[in-house]
Design goal:
521 residues, mainly alpha, 17 helices, globular, disordered C terminus, transmembrane, MFS_trans_sf, transport
Length: 521
Amino acid sequence: MESRFGGLTARRFHWLFAGLLLSILLTQLDQTIVSTALPTIVTQLEGFTQMSWVFTIYMLTSTAMTPIAGKLSDLYGRKVFLVLGLTIFVIGSVLCGSAQSMLQLIIFRGIKGIGAGLLMPITFTVVFSLMPRNGNSVYQTLYMSVFALSSVIGPTVGALITSLLSWRYIFYINLPLGLVIFVIILKLLPRNAAMPKPDASIGYVGPGLLILGTLSLLLALKTGGVQYAWSSLPILGLLIVGGIATAWFVLSQLREKEPVIPFRLFRNRVMASTYVATLMQGIMMYGALVYIPLFVQGSLGGGVTGTGGALTPLMLCVMFGATLCGALIQRFTWRFNIALSMLLSGTGFLMMIFLPVNVSYVVLCLVMMLIGLGIGMMMMVGQTAVSMGVDDSVRGAATSSVSFFRSIGGVFGTAVLTSLINARLSVLLERHSGDLSGVAGELGVVTDPLAALNSHAGLPAEQLELMRQMLGDAVQYGFWLMAGAAAIGFIAAFWAGSSRQEVLPPPLEAAPAKADAITIR
């Protein structure tokens, strides 16, 4: 029984696995639980104009830290950085709960994001290392369930805590949960055998360039077309700095002995195919999370009153998709699984494009279920293919890169999607300006379609219905981007070749393990 769980007894494995799942739930829930409490926070701290930075700073710092965390865990051990990430995350949570101004809250959210950037990728690496290679569909289902749970219960939990206690407790709740995880990790998680050579180091230049490039590009993508025009000096400056830093980073890493992102991984067809498909999955997943609720609440006239309700069918099918994938990867190639996931999601987005604005909620749910199945499959096959295709000496960097590419795809996709939808809506408003009696002229350049619709909720029924139709048309126009991403991912799947998980190429530059160490594969 011990060999099935990477050298751990079944009892010890199950307790450790539960603690790691709780760790994933903690970090994933953090985004959704804050959303419903944010209006109260903004009112008390008087920081409406800075509201978006509560989410933006967390995303920036966590994404920038993700690949660095993976590489550090390869060199110096998973356990030490898992504990460090959890400690920073919990301290950041307590600081957020004690914030007395929006500026303090934003700074503390940035600290918390650093902790999450360390915690999330290393947790994923350990989870997929400990999962038994055969008969692991139950563990895969449990693993994916935390993502569905965070999106489904997050807004409700946040609202309950805020109304019954205080918004500060949505952050303080991480303290007792974090302590439980801390004890489990310290007592049950063995040190991995991938210990560094005497001169092993990733230096300072590579991580510094990666952080500078990532922060600059993501910040430009998040604020471009919203807070600043794309042609404005701040956005152009960020894009130039980000582009130069990224190019310098890539060139420097090609010469590094211990690169933060081992680019040799891309010589492996399974890795290269999986990373491209994961990038496309990020575009689809985050685009769906942002704009399907907009389509439901805006175009359908508020048939679903909450974002959680609008996304519940999709997120539940993410879990079912992971379960399905857990069975399929035992029988079929990586190529088949990636292609099937992209085919399901792509078909769902194509159906979204051609749905009538007055579509029934039942039909919409069925389409969202199709999209969720594809996304769930790709999340599982992406992590599993990469984790099983490399040796422990580079597993942290390899698996953290999956999360990194998914986040980059999400930010890039939502930025492009926002620009497409807003530009399309502005064109439609101008085209129908005569029918709207000057409303289009008042709106000007649209940066928040739903706010634009709600601000004119008192219009005559005919004009309000026309605005809803235009909003639906604009969002459906943007869904072409997600359908295109699915098509690219489908094509990338065929680059993976005919490998199956039991006949993957040999591990890349395998490092010998110490004989007396318990290895987290």
